From TrEMBL:
It comes from the Eukaryota. PROSITE patterns: FBOX. Residues 56-102 form the F-box domain. Its main location: nucleus. The keyword Nucleus applies. Component of the SCF-type E3 ligase complex. It holds the Pfam family F-box-like. Acts as a component of a SCF E3 ubiquitin ligase complexes. GO terms for cellular component: cytoplasm; nucleus; SCF ubiquitin ligase complex. It is found in: Nucleus. This is F-box protein. Pathway: Protein modification; protein ubiquitination.
Length: 328
């Protein structure tokens, strides 16, 4: 037999080698799906006329019109959570109608025309982009500032130099109308949140004030009136910031000043006390019996707590455990 009879063609040799390799390579059929385009579910109001079958039970039982009405009644942050459920919900949530209503409500003090001008000039006509990037105060919860100070105690038994750590909170609840509620208290967050509204009684020691938000530097000017025989106004300057885009969940306390006002100034403008003290200097007072005082203590930043997280917040813990969670 000649050597030519034993030679194997090159095409057959490559085929035999490929067949041998298949025994050592694990088959992965899902690799065949790479690069295959899956057509997304058309959102509500789409102009596409192609019929589509959605296997999800909730999408087959709930019409798009009802889904739209449900989303229209949800808070913006709840819409963000709903967008993580599935692709159809994500596309539906991107409907500009939802974000237009949220923006016009959040910045209602600026007016509709001014909001439309800002939309076109700064945010390319996108209401959702405006909601994420434009600074705003959150109204779906409370801003809380926890402060502590040391107070000397009374000598008892073998304890010669006792000290006490006193813990108190500053609570602020903003409203889109330009008003807010303010309270200083040692009560826990879950107890204060129950009556932090305009229907609270005078015994709850809630004080009403007005505020303005500057769009240029994210600063808040606020004022609260302490009524009584010697009326005093509390002027607050805050800087708004966030731990993520669109969060707006932190506020730095820049200054805290108390000043005296006379009866003529507050007789007709009690609801707009900020307009009375606007432009005042830090050491300015209109009552010689009440000097202006700039407070340097209790300047801890504010942390935002949504209403649905009030009961589980670490701010309800005792001071010693709270320090562990904050610093740990």
């Amino acid at each position: 037999m000649t050597s030519d009879a034993l030679s194997i063609p090159s095409e057959l040799e490559s085929a035999l080698r490929l067949r041998t390799v298949q025994y050592f390579i694990t088959k992965r059929p899902w690799l065949d799906l790479y690069g295959v385009h899956v057509r997304p579910v058309p959102p509500f109001g789409s102009t596409s006329r192609k019929p589509h079958y959605d296997p999800a039970l909730i999408h087959r039982c709930l019409p798009d019109e009802l889904l739209f009405e449900v989303f229209a009644r949800m808070m913006p942050y709840d819409l963000g959570r709903a967008a993580c459920v599935c692709r159809k919900w994500r596309y539906t949530v991107r409907n500009p109608v939802f974000w237009r209503n949220a923006c016009l409500k959040a910045w209602q003090t600026a007016g509709v025309i001014e909001n439309y001008k800002i939309l076109q000039s700064n945010y390319d006509g996108s209401w959702r982009k405006m909601w994420l990037l434009r600074s705003r105060v959150r109204t779906d919860g409370l801003y809380v500032s926890r402060n502590t100070y040391i107070r000397a105690g009374i000598t008892e038994w073998k304890i010669t130099n006792p000290v006490h750590i006193v813990c108190y909170f500053r609570y602020i609840r903003f409203y889109p109308s330009g008003r807010f509620l303010y309270k200083n208290s040692s009560q826990k967050l879950k107890d204060v949140a129950k009556y932090m509204n305009f229907k609270a009684s005078k015994s709850d020691s809630l004080y009403r004030g007005t505020y303005t938000l500057s769009m240029s530097d994210d600063k808040i000017e606020a004022a609260v009136l302490y009524p009584g025989t010697r009326p005093t106004v509390l002027r607050i300057r805050l800087r708004l910031r966030g731990t993520a885009i669109g969060a707006n969940n932190r506020m730095d306390l820049l200054s805290l000043v108390t000043s005296g006002v006379n009866d003529e100034e507050i007789s007709s403008t009690e609801e707009d006390i900020l307009g009375v003290v606007e432009g005042w200097e830090d050491d300015e007072t209109h009552n010689p019996d009440i000097p202006a005082v700039s407070h340097k203590r209790g300047m801890t930043p504010f942390v935002f707590v949504p209403f649905e997280e009030v009961e589980q917040s670490v701010l309800n813990l005792p001071p010693e455990k709270m320090d562990y969670y904050v610093t740990g």
